[in-house]
Structure formats: C-alpha cells, structure tokens
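re: the backbone from monday

yeah here it is again, tokenized this time
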C-alpha cells in the first residue's frame, strides 16, 4: 500500500459565556498513513473530532464539560478493539453525546473522523458537515445523524466543522480553502473570519498528500543521506539544542534501523557496513552526551536548578506562541499570556535573580501590556474635603458646569470644587439632605434624590417631585431635561414640562428584573449595572443584545460605572481588583488601569478629555488615562 502524508489545520472560534467549541486530534502529530506502530493505534488509526456547545447555562463548568466530552470520546473509541473501527466510532460518538445531554437543555454537536490505513470513517451527531474536494469536485459527504466510510486518494481535502462555521464563512471562502496549496494557507484564510465575533466554531482542514521522495544512494553498504533544516535555538544555555539534537538522533536511528535487513543481507559481501553503522551511532551518542554536558554547565553558570530552567523554557514557549496568535486568535493569545504570567509568578516565589529570567520577565510584561492592555497608573490628591469641613467624607460625585459637586451623607452637606482653579465652597446643606441618596446633573441643572422626593439644588433645595419610601430609589439620572428614576420595578421617566415635571411614566416596554441593579447611566440609551458585574443596555424602551466581553479577570467586590454622551467608552471601577476597566460601547474590552487607591474609591467620573476624578474618604483624586 502506498503511504500518504496527512496534513491538517485546526480552527477554533472565540468562546462566549454560553457557547464553546473544541478541536481534538489524537495522536496530535502529523503522520504518514500506516506510521502508527502500536496495536491500538494500528487498529484505530488517528482520530479527528470537532465539538460545539451552545446555550450552556452553567458557564463556570462549560470548559470542564468540553474537555470531558473530548476525553470520553477518545476513551470510548480506543477502549474496545474487538469491534471494527467504523462500528466503534459510531458507537463512541452516540454514547458520548447521549451521556453529556442526559437531563440537560444545551445544544451539543459532535463530528468525528478516523483514518485507519488508507480508509476514512466519519460520523456526525446533531449538527455539522463533512465536505470533500477530490479532483476539483466538491461534495458534502455527511449530514447530521449519518456515517460514511471510503478510501483516501492523494490530493483529497476534507473539511469537518460545526454549524457555526458554515454560518460565518461564506461559500466562496470555503471554495478558496479547497484551492489552498497547504493547510497552513487554508488556516490563514479561515481564522480571521471565525475570530471576528464570538461563536461555537470548531473546524479541521485535512489534506492527503503524497509522501515526499528522498534521494538515496542505494549502493552496497551505503546509508541514506539525511538532511535536516530544523532551526536550532541555542537560547538558555543549549537546552533547545539538546532537545533538537535528541530529535535528530531518534530520527537517524529510526532510519538506520530500517537499513538493518539490507545490511544483514549484504554482510558477507561488505563486512565494513556493520562497522560503519556502529561508528555513526557511537558518534551520535557522544555528541548527544556533549550537548547534555554543556547544557548542564550552562545552567550551573546561570545559577538555576533544572526545574527552574524548564519553567523558563515553558514561559518562553507560551510567550512565543501567544505572539504568533496576536492577530489570528486574540482570545487564545491572551489565554497563553496569562498562563505564562502564572509561570512567572511561580518562578518569582523562588526569588530568582537570574539576568536571563529578569529579561524574559520584562519582555513578557511588555507584551502583556500591549495585548492585555493592562496599565499601571498613579493618581494624585486633587482636593481634600476636610479643608471645607472637619471629618468630611465624599459619597457621591457629579460634574456640574465647571465644578465637581460632592455629596457627604453623614454631614448632610454638598461641597463644590472648581475643576480648573480648585476654588471650593459648601454649596448647600440642611435637613433636606439627611436622607439624600444620589446626585445627578444635566447642563445647568443639579438634582438630589432623597427618601421623600427629588430636589432641585440652587443654594437651597427645592422639592420638584414627591416620592415615597415605596419607590425604593436605586439611582437617579437627569438627561435632556427629563429625570429618570431606577428602582427594583423598572425605569421611570419624569418628562420636563413648562411648570416643572410631568407625571411618572414607565419607560421600559417590557418588565425587567432590577432587584440586583446598583447604578444607571444615560447617553441616549439607558445603561444599568448589576451587582454581579453585568451591564445591560436599553434603547427606546427595549433591551439590546449587549454584553461585556474580553475581560482579563472577573470583577470582584464593589462596582461602580460611568458613561456619558461625550464619551466613547463605558468605564467600570472594580474596587476588589483595584482597577478601572474600559469597554467600547459595543461591549469589547479596551484596557485595564491599575492603582491601589482605586480599592478605596466610592464613586468616580470621567471627563471628555479623559481626566478621571474619584472619591476615597475625604479626598478627591485625579489622573489622566493614556
């Protein structure tokens, strides 16, 4: 049987909170057909699988479930060698899908293919497709619930993918994939398309290529001429050199073993051939030993243990892989960088001062800053409220005309500080402020929401809207002359009229649950922040399809947020992680800004020139975003 060479590329989309995808290939290396030498692999061949999972409600366990499905599929397929490969593949896929979906409501699709010898077997369950291109003729081999088998031919290209792939990738791009000269070329065409938006894409492109021919001198006692073009990286004291040389040695020995039968037959005619074989093997072993010795010497010079040395290599490997995926798969690149950072933290625990490690650590930080957009910032005290009143403390902050206005609930007082000149004074105070909850402003109007009503502030508070305790005001926002009140039952609008404000109107078209809501902002749309860090957006009374994505780490502790019609972004102050997080108004993560004082902040605002003012105790701090 002629041997083929299998080439493949894997494409995995960007997961969401409820949707995920996985690609699995076992064994993971690219092989010649017939190269598998163990009994299990010889009978079962190489396994290719795509898994898509949608509408999963337990987001904290989704990744665990995906990996478990992959593990169970491999276990079931390779576990029983008595049945035929085709029957076992069908049985394994059906069993794994049934187990995973028992009592669950999420959608699961599994596509699997196995290449045993020169035959391909494939099964699809629930969704997905298997396409083939043979002799420039494209065909759909398989639909959900079906199984197929057939002989491979040199030049075949297969595409096994989940439904989301065919939803996102237009037919003309799939046609381009089949015309690609290599799987890498196909990957470069497809990857940008599936990474443009979150999805459950899992796809494998598989090509059947002719085995490369090698020019060999077949004279008596001669050996194959072996060429290697592997790039050897001598960084970190030769560790990679040893690794590369070890692989070369194994490759040579494997090829030399294939010559044993030939040499044995020629032994009488050319007794020197055996000596030549032993000499080459001996030289290779010596060279390998020398490379190991120098690697050890180099590690000793560096002053690191073997374990730390390997840790540094893992960090470098993840960093290089992350850099290669920056544009093709930003989510995966970010994941690899966070893994590398975790390894750096492990090395830091040993108080490692090695120059090579410190250089590696600095280069990783630089890359993480550009990819993760994590910035260390430093603010300064803008104003101390105790200048105006002893034991003053800020609770709520708004920007009104050219002033920062601060509400001090304990002192039932409003303070104002001019932004440019820092001119300050006590703006108002009295019993009306004893039950004050929130401040809001729009243009030249300043309002305060309290237990019994909403007051307009003009040195002395004027009641403009009566409310009662049953309203349970969570937040109050003034926008375009109107007032909007958020409570547990919804968003209520008080329209501006000539004499003040009209009657309360229900702004939302459908009832929403706001029992966990903590803050509101308006820029034309209404934004609501919830205790768990979710941000919802509503436009013209209806909820938008909106969610925050790309967060480097989950929110923790008390949260505050801010946006306005003058800003392009939404900002969330994450007190627990001592950071300010920026998102675009379509929900994509933009940057993290870290400063330890943010862990004490109780409110903040962002101006159009990117100046940030935040309250912490008696002090107002400020800094400017890069």
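seq for it, each position gets an aa:
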């Amino acid at each position: 049987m002629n041997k083929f060479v299998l080439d493949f590329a894997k494409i995995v989309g960007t997961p969401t909170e409820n949707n995920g995808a996985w690609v699995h290939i076992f064994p993971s290396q690219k092989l010649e057909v017939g190269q598998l030498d163990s009994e299990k692999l010889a009978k079962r061949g190489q396994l290719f699988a795509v898994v898509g999972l949608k509408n999963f409600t337990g987001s904290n366990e989704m990744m665990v479930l995906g990996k478990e499905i992959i593990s169970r599929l491999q276990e079931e397929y390779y576990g029983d060698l008595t049945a035929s490969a085709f029957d076992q593949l069908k049985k394994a896929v059906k069993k794994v899908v049934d187990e995973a979906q028992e009592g669950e409501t999420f959608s699961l699709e599994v596509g699997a293919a196995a290449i045993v010898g020169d035959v391909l077997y494939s099964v699809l369950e629930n969704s997905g497709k298997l396409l083939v291109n043979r002799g420039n003729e494209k065909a759909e081999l398989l639909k959900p619930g079906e199984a197929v088998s057939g002989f491979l031919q040199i030049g075949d290209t297969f595409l096994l993918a989940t439904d989301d792939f065919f939803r996102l990738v237009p037919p003309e791009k799939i046609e381009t994939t089949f015309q690609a000269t290599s799987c890498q070329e196909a990957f470069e065409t497809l990857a940008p398309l599936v990474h443009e938006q979150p999805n459950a894409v899992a796809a494998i492109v598989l090509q059947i290529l002719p085995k490369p021919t090698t020019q060999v001198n077949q004279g008596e006692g001669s050996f194959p001429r072996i060429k290697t073009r592997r790039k050897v990286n001598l960084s970190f004291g030769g560790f990679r050199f040893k690794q590369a040389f070890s692989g070369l040695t194994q490759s040579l020995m494997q090829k030399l073993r294939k010559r044993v039968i030939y040499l044995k037959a020629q032994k009488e005619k050319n007794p020197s051939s055996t000596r030549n074989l032993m000499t080459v093997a001996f030289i290779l072993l010596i060279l390998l030993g020398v490379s190991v010795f120098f690697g050890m010497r180099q590690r000793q010079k560096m002053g690191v243990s073997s374990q730390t040395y390997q840790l540094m290599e893992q960090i470098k490997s993840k960093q290089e892989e992350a850099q290669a995926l920056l544009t093709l798969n930003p989510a995966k690149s970010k994941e690899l960088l966070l893994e590398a950072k975790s390894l750096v933290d492990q090395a830091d625990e040993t108080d490692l001062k090695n120059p090579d490690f410190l250089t590696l650590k600095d280069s990783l930080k630089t890359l993480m800053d550009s990819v993760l957009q994590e910035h260390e910032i430093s603010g300064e005290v803008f104003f101390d409220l105790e200048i105006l009143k002893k034991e003053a403390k800020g609770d709520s902050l708004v920007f009104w005309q050219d002033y920062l206005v601060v509400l001090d609930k304990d002192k039932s007082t409003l303070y104002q500080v001019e932004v440019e000149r820092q001119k300050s004074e006590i703006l108002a105070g009295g019993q009306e402020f004893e039950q004050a909850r929130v401040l809001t402003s729009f243009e030249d109007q300043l309002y305060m929401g309290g237990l019994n009503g909403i007051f307009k502030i003009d040195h002395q508070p004027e009641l403009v809207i009566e409310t009662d305790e049953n309203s349970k005001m969570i937040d109050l926002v003034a926008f375009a002359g109107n007032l909007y009140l958020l409570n547990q039952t919804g968003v209520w609008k008080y329209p501006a009229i000539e004499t003040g404000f009209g009657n309360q109107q229900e702004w939302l078209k459908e009832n929403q649950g706001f029992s966990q809501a903590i803050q509101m902002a308006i820029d034309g749309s209404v934004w609501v922040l919830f205790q768990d860090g979710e941000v919802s957006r509503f436009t013209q009374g209806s909820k938008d399809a909106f969610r925050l994505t790309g967060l480097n780490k989950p929110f923790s502790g008390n949260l505050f947020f801010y946006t306005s019609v003058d800003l392009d972004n939404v900002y969330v102050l994450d007190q627990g992680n001592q950071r300010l997080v920026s998102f675009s108004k379509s929900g994509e993560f933009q940057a993290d800004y870290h400063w330890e004082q943010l862990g004490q902040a109780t409110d903040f605002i962002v101006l159009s020139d990117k100046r940030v003012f935040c309250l912490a105790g008696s002090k107002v701090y400020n800094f400017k975003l890069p």
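The first strand starts at residue 4 and ends at 12. The chain has four domains: 4-210, 239-294, 306-372, 380-624.
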